[in-house]
Amino acid sequence: MLQKLIMGGAALAVAAAALLLVSIPGATFDGGTAEATVRGLSASATTINRSGTSVLTIDSDTGTNVQVLSTVGTVTITTCNGLVFPAGICVAANVIGETTANMTVCGTALGGVCVGVADAGTDTLTVTYTAPATGPATATLTVIQGTSAKSLNIKIRGAASTVELSVLRAASTSTSTCVGSTSNVIRSSTATGGNTTGFLCAIVKDSTGNRTPTAAVIYSTTAGTLTASSDVTGAAGQRANAVTIAAGSTGTSGKTATISISSSGKTSTASIKFGGNASTCTIAADPATVTVGGASAITISVLDSASGPVPDAVVVTVIQINAGGGANAAILNATPTTNNGTATTSLIAALPGAIAIGATLGTKTCTGTVTAAAAAAATPATPAAGTPAVSGFAPGAGASGLTVFSDLTSTADAWGLVCGSNDSGSSISMTNASGNTYALVNGAPSFANNGFNTNITLSGTQAAFVSCA
User: Fold this and answer.
1) Which of 156, 188, 212 is the last residue of a domain?
2) % of the chain residues with pLDDT over 70
3) Residues whose CB is less than 8 angstroms from the CB of residue 165 and which lie 6 or more positions away in sequence, other chains included
4) Confidence category of residue 49, pLDDT binned at 50, 70, 90
5) 53 and 144 share a domain?
6) What CA–CA distance (Å, rounded) separates 304 from 289?
């Protein structure tokens, strides 16, 4: 391994000459061959604020110059992290469009040559990227070494321009957006059922609509208790589940809390109610009258003693009171839960009559009625022309009687529609109003007249006395 140059006299000239000798691509140092390859590129943060920084780690071979380019912002060498260079092999960072003279060089320049210690192994280089105060929202950083290159994008976010706040019934399952049902009502300080907690989810965006990471957020509420008064958004510009609200001593039944959020002077609000135990209950059916087989949507409304909604997620048990006597019905969801003071289910009427239903939650019960009417008798459809059909006769092997048939033109039509069987061991005879008899016997390809010597086609509509044997 070449030693670092000692700045002085003849020794400097000799050492410089030696450094120049080993600057040839592919030269061997410490028994290895230097290669020009960018093996890896990573960033400490791929989303940063305006004027913020991200540290890039470059895994590189020291066989030729390493250059770091950025479409916007600036790149500076932070440390070589033990990276050593053969003579003439420099590590530099700059912004696209600048001249080589404006590059920041890692190492001491000596007559245009980067001075360091030669090493043929793989080393790491650390550079720092600084985002501009204004400009595009994305920077592309490219590391070039020899003929190889690697790139990555860094998103640049501005100061908070808008903030969004939502209160969820359960913890959000996403770190990039607020995922989940909105919480409308949580348990008051005296209630015994339903949700006790609302999960706050905050999103901060800049003036271009992009999320702002690591943004400080301040919370406050007019009622109830927050688990924290401040927080910081994550790398995706969103923060969920870290701050929650509960009733505490001030979240009494019937009260509504206004939760405020602010970031860089931008504000937003969300509200949540505090519900007590059930005091009144009503049931509404839509429609209130259905035909047998029809469905009715059932809505159960439950209020507390302050005439406000009970907490979300209170289980309501729905039953048919007169099951087994009178009308009957199928309740599709017998245990719906409340949301903003209402629970919903539906029923399917099975028999005509009045269907009494009841809903119970805690010690409170309410009732309602759905009336089921008999379904109207179905009107037989008129077959389209050319469609085989039989009426006035119950098909079946061994059956006989008067029937009307239309477009009965094939053996399959006769066996299937008239006698309700296949053509194995059966025969059909038909005598029409004129006394003519037609027969289809086992194995015969078509109908025959009463002389059994001429095949005929019975198209159109005809009445006949039919006997199936």
Assistant:
1) 156
2) 61
3) 200, 201, 202, 259, 261, 268, 269, 270
4) confident
5) yes
6) 30
For residues 325 and 294, state if they share a domain: yes
Q: Are residues 59 and 94 in the same domain?
A: yes
Residues 216 and 136 in one domain: no
Same domain for 355 and 341, yes or no, is: yes
Answer for the pair 187, 310: CB distance below 8 angstroms, yes or no: no
Q: How many domains does the chain have?
A: 4
414 in a domain, yes or no?
yes
Cis bond before residue 352 (omega within 30° of 0): no
Query: Where is average pLDDT lowest: 18-22, 46-50, 142-146, 184-188?
Result: 18-22
> Is 384 within the bounds of a domain?
no
Following DSSP, what letter does each residue of 331-375 receive, concatenated?
Answer: ES-SS-B-BTTEEEEEEEE-SSEEEEEEEEETTEEEEEEEEEEPP
| Neighbouring residues of 133: CB distance < 8 A, sequence distance ≥ 6 | 50, 51
pLDDT in tens, 281-335: 999 999 999 888 888 999 999 999 999 999 999 999 998 886 545 447 888 899 9
Would you say 247 and 189 are in contact if contact means Cβ atoms under 8 Å apart? yes
Instruction: Say which range, 19-28, 79-88, 402-411, 450-459, has the weakest mean pLDDT.
Output: 19-28
The single-letter DSSP state of residue 52 is: -
Distance CA 126, CA 75 (A): 10
Instruction: Please indicate, yes or no, if residue 380 is contained in any of the structural domains.
Output: no
* Residue 182 three-state SS: strand
The partner residues of 216 in beta bridges, in order of sequence, read 232
**Interval 126-143 mean pLDDT:** 83
Local confidence band at 245 (pLDDT 50, 70, 90 cut-offs): very high
The sign one gets for the Cα dihedral 226, 232, 234, 237 is positive
pLDDT of residue 159: 82
> Model pTM?
0.56
Please tell me the number of Cα atoms within 13 Å of 8 on its side-chain side: 1
- Domain containing 333: what range? 278-373
Q: Is residue 4 part of a domain?
A: no
